Request: fold
Amino acid sequence: MTAEAQSTEMPSDNAASTAESIRRLRGLRAVVEDAVEHGASAVERIHLATADVPFNVLQRVPVLEAPVREIRTVHDEAVRSSYRIARMINRAVARSLDAVLDVVERG
Amino acid sequence: MGRRLEQAIGALNGAVGDYLARTSNGLATTMAFYHADRRLETSPEAIQTAHPGATGRLVILVHGLMCTEHVWQFAIGSELVDYGSLLAKDLGMTPFYVRYNSGLRIDDNGVALAELIERLVDAYPIPIESITLLGYSMGGLLVRGATRVGLERGYRFMSLTRRSIYVGTPHLGAPLERWTRSVTGLLDRLDIPATRLAVELTSLRSEGVKNLGDAHAFPLVPSIHHYLVAGLLSASSPPRTVAEGVEASPTFLADLIGDLLVPLPSATDGGVAAKTYSSLPAHVKVLRDVDHVGLAHHPEVYAHVRAWCAEES
Reply:
């Protein structure tokens, strides 16, 4: 390959390399987003299922049944809200990264 | 950094590569030949540029689960070599390194490999005298699958392929995956939140990993020579070859441990096992004190590979 041929190929090689890097960064962003999304949902399910055990026992006691039911509703909603917020932040960060990558790609 | 990044992506592909491919993720590897860390197109020009001194004797190297072609590399002095570069130097063979998504189904990768080799044959700039297929671990199963597909479809590369060499290949499956299945099945029956999480996490492993638990579904293609290399950790007795005139007695431990991931009967396609053992056939080599990972880059393995490749050369 001549020096001239090399010099004419270098810009397209660099462009291809940048495109490949962007493609991979988008892939990494998607993997992390999915991992946090599904990880948070899985932990949420386990969290609620674990809390179910003592709540179920306490709700079998007639005198405690009504107050425990109230506490359980508040607890479950608080847990769900926490994980919901975590997932929302995760999606917001992912969208922001996408926007940054769009700018880099266009630039 | 580049090499480590490629290795990390290779590992990720092995772990969850089916998910990456399903979601069209940019980290999913598409099967291709790689030369000097770059994708090598199967065109006469690209092949000639990568291999200006290309010969008619090809060796195609297929890596294993969760790795890339870098797994073949080892140092001799200050020089970084691999089985392919050594075969090029010693026997004038031209090496082609396959990189693929090892998280996909092994059958599917076998089909893709057959198609890739056929494209290479079509594009090769000079007449091909012979092809040697060299597969490490899961890569051996791909080679096995590709030769089956090649035979069924009447691909040209099959008439040129002289030999397949399987290094640490789990022909009869890998027990670690079977144990994982059993434990996961057991945990799944327990209605405990913590075990449910463990089952969910374990179930994320790729189709490629899950396939490793199964034995091959078809016999070796009879029209080519097959050679097998197995590792055997020192906890068990070393078998000897017939040439050495000694009949050894592998123990139950040899069957069980093998190279730590692949037991001796699996790596030798059922050819060597404590129950049926009398002596090693010539096409089987068992290396003592070499673990599974070490088989991909070991001078002694190369010595056997070279000797087999030198036959009929």
